[in-house]
Amino acid sequence: MTTEQAAGPALDVRRRLYELMTLMKAADDRLSKGIASGELQCVYWPSRGQEAIAAAVGAVLRLDDQLVTTYRGLHDLIGKGVPLVEIYGEMLGRQVGSGRGKGGTMHIAHPDSGLMMSTGIVGAGPPVAVGLAMAARRKGLDRVTVASFGDGATNTGSFHEAANMAALWDLPLVLVCQNNQYAEMTPTGHTMKIAQVADRAAGYGMPGVRVDGNDPLAVVAALEEAVERARAGAGPTLLECVTFRFRGHYFGDPMKYIPTEQMDAAIAADPLPRFRSRLLDDGVCGARELDEIETAAVSAVDEALAAVLAAPAAALDELDRDVYADPRNCPA
Amino acid sequence: MTMREALNLALDQALERDERVFLIGEDIADPGASGPTAGLSSRYGTERVLDTPISEAAIVGAAIGAAMEGFRPVAEIMIMDFIGIAADQIINHAAKMRFMTGGRTTAPITVRTQIYGGLGTGATHSQSLEAWFMHIPGLKVIVPSTPRDGKGLLTSAIFDDDPCIFLETIRLQGQRGMVPVDPGFSIPLGQADVKRAGTDVTLISYGRGVVESLGAADALARQEISAEVLDLRTLVPLDTAAIIESVHRTTRAVVVHDAVQFAGPGAEIVAILQRELFDRLSAPVERVGARFVPNPAPPALESQVYPNSEKIIAAVHRTLRWKTTREGARG
To answer: What mean pLDDT, rounded, does chain A reach?
Structure first.
C-alpha cells in the first residue's frame, strides 16, 4: 500500500494503459477469429497494432472530454470507455448495440462515454470536432475534444479546413494522427511530399509533435501537454503517432502491398509485448499480475460477446425510426 | 418588407429568443455582410455571428458538432453551387446521424444557401440543386417564395429537430410583401399553400417558380382560364395531400421549377399524381423546368433556360388541348 502510494499516479497510469491495450487486443483477436471462422458475420477495419495510441487517449482524457474517431475505431472506442457489449452489439447488428444495431461497425457513437462520432468518411471527423470544441467554449466548459484519424485523412481538404479553423480560433482541440503508414493500400510516402505529418502543423500556426505511437508512455507525455494546452485555451496541437496496422485496411485484406520485411519489423515492434517487457523491467508489475490482466481481458471480451450473441437482432421496425425526429416526415 | 428583411428579422428574433442559436458562414458579419445577416453581428457579437474562412466543409461540420451539443446553428453557404464542398458533411453526417446512432446523437442544423441565376453569373453560380437533397433520407428541404413564408419557414427550420436545407433565391430577395413581426410567428414545415385559387388547372411550384406561375395565372385569367397556384413551400416533407386535393378538383396540372427538368423535383410530383389520380386526370401532367444545359452566361441565352410565364401558359394550353383530342378520339 505504502509503496503504491509512493509511486503515485504514474504507476496507476502504466497499469491502466496495459489493461486498456490488452482489452483492445483481446477484442480484436476474438473478433478476427470469429470472422475468419465464419462464426461472426460483420465487416471490420482492424485496429490491431495501434493500441498504444488509443490507450493513451483513454488514459489522458477525462470522461467529459470528447473523442471523434473513424471506422478503424475499435481501440479508440474501448479506450474512451464505450461498453464492449454496445460495440460488439453494433458491429453484429444486435439490439444491444450502441445504435440498436442499425449503424454498423463504422458509425458507433456513445455520448455518455464522450465518444461523439465515428465516421466512415476519411477526413470528415475534424470539422465535427471543431464544432464540438466550439460548443465546449460557448458553454464555458473546460473540456477538450480529440479528433483521431489516420495519415490519409491529412490529405483531405476537410482536414485542412478544420485544422486552419481550429488554430484560427484557438479551439480546445487535439488532432491525433494515427500514422499507420498506409492510406488504405497506398504507403504514406506515395501520398505526401513531406516526411512527417506533424510538419503540416506549421502551416496552420499550431504545434506539431511526432512521437513513437507504439510507446504508450511517449504518447501519454505528448498528449498530456497537448491536452493541457487546449484546456488552458492556448489552442490545438497536431500530434502524429507513428504506428502500424497488422491486419491491413479491412479484415481479410490479403496485404500483398505490404513488403514482408516491413511487416516483420512491425510485428517485432508490436506495442503489447514491448510494453509488457517494459513494465516487468521497470518493476511496475509482476509477471503474474500481467498474466491476470490478460486473462481478465479475454474473459471480459468473451462475456461481452456471449451477451451480444444472446441478444435479439436489430428489429425490422428500426427502419421506421430515427430517419427524422417524427417518422411522419418520411415520404410514403 | 423585402424577403431579405424578412429573413433578417427571422434570424434576429431567433438570436434574441434563444442563446443556442448562432450563425456561421462566410462574410456574414458586419461590415462585410450585405445579405439577410447584415447588422446582426453588430447586435449579437461576432461570437454568435461568426465569419469563417472560405471552408464550406468545416462550416457545416462545425455546425454539426455544435448541434450535437444542443446548439441551433444556422450555417450559411453563400451560393448553392458551393454546397458540393460541404456535401459530405450534409449527406453523410447531418442527414444520417440520428438513424445511425439510434437517436443517440442528432444534428439539428439549418443550412441557408442562395440560388443564383438570372444574373449572368454563368454555370457555376446559378444552379437550383434541391433535387440532390430531396433524395437524401434525413434532410428537410425548404424553398420559400414570399417574405411572409420566408420568415415563418426559417423560424421553423432553426428550431426543427432535423437538419434543414433552406433555399433562398437571389431574384426574390428584393420582393416585397406583408410579414408578421410577431416573434412567435412560424409556418409548419410540410404545409403547401394555395397562392391563388383556380378551377381549370393547378400550377404546382415553389420558390421563384411560384412568381412565374402567378404571372402566368394572371395572363390565363384574361383568356378565361382559371389556374390555381399551389406553392409547395417545403419539398421534404412534401404536402402530398394538398397536391392531390388540388389536382383532384382541377384535373390538370403543370409543375414549374427552376431546377433542371430532367430528374427534377417535378418528376416525383408527376409520379404521385399518376398513381393517385390516374382516372381523374384530364391530360398528362406537364413539367416546365430548366433546360438540360449548364447555365450560359449571356443573358439572351440564360433567359431561354428558365421557366417563364410564356412557357407555363404554353404548357397549360397543351393540357387543355389534350382533353379535346381524347374526347374527340372517343367520340
So the answer is: 95
Residue A128, Cβ density class (10 Å: 0-12 exposed, 13-18 middle, ≥19 buried): buried
CB B253 within 8 A of CB B319: yes
CB burial of B18-36 (b: ≥16 within 10 Å; e: otherwise) equals eebbbbbbbbbbbeebebb
> Which of B171, B32, B58 is closest to B115 using CA atoms?
B171
Q: Are B212 and B309 in contact (CB under 8 A)?
A: yes
With CB atoms and an 8 Å threshold, state whether B55 touches A165. yes
The x, y and z cell numbers of residue B227, run together, are: 389556374
Which run of H or E residues covers position A299? helix A287-310
Cβ distance A26 to A298 under 8 Å? yes
Interface list for A 113-142 with B (CB within 8 A)? 116-117, 119-121, 124, 126-136, 138-139
Active-site amino acid positions of B? 56, 125
Rounded Cα gap, residues A126 and A135, in angstroms: 14
Give Cβ neighbours of residue A20 (< 8 Å, ≥ 6 apart): A51, A54, A55, A58, A59, A78, A79
Task: State which CATH number among 3.30.70.100, 3.40.50.970, 3.40.50.620, 3.40.50.720 fits the domain covering B3-172.
Answer: 3.40.50.970
pLDDT bucket at A1, cuts 50 / 70 / 90:
very low
CATH 3.40.50.920 fits B193-330, yes or no: yes
**Burial class of residue B318, CB neighbours in 10 A (0-12, 13-18, 19+):** middle
Averaged pLDDT, A214-224: 98
Residue A3 has pLDDT above 50, yes or no: no
CATH homologous superfamily for the domain A6-252+261-309: Thiamin diphosphate (ThDP)-binding fold, Pyr/PP domains (3.40.50.970)
Q: DSSP letter string over A105-149?
A: GGG--BGGGTEEEEESSTT-HHHHHHHHHHHHHHHT----EEEEE
Pairing of strands A186-187, A182-183: antiparallel
Crossing angle of helices A51-60/A216-231, nearest 10°?
Answer: 40
Torsion angle (degrees, nearest 10) of CA B100, B102, B108, B110: 30
Chain A partners within 8 Å of B240 (Cβ): 331-332
Q: Inform me whether the pLDDT recorded for A285 exceeds 50.
A: yes
Per-residue model confidence as pLDDT tens digits over A164-204:
999 999 999 999 999 999 999 999 999 999 999 999 999 99
**Distance, CA of A106 to CA of A35 (rounded, Å):** 16
B129 touches B260 (CB < 8 A): no
Distance CA A134, CA B28 (A): 18
The domain segmentation of chain B, as residue ranges, is: 3-172, 193-330
Separation in Å, CA B173 to CA A201, B9, B169, B223: 42, 13, 6, 31
Ranges in chain B, pLDDT < 50: 328-331
pLDDT of residue A332: 82
ipTM of the complex: 0.95
- Tally the residues of chain A: 332
Whether residue A4 has pLDDT greater than 60:
no
Peptide bond between residue A126 and the one before it cis (omega within 30 degrees of 0): no
Cα B275 from Cα B109, distance rounded (Å): 34
Task: Measure CB to CB from residue B88 to each of A111, A124, A138 and give the nearest one.
Answer: A124
Residue A12 pLDDT grade (very low, low, confident, very high; cuts 50, 70, 90): confident
Residues in chain B within 8 Å Cβ distance of A135: 65-66, 68-71
Report which residue type is found at A219: V
Number of Cβ pairs < 8 A linking chain A and chain B: 164
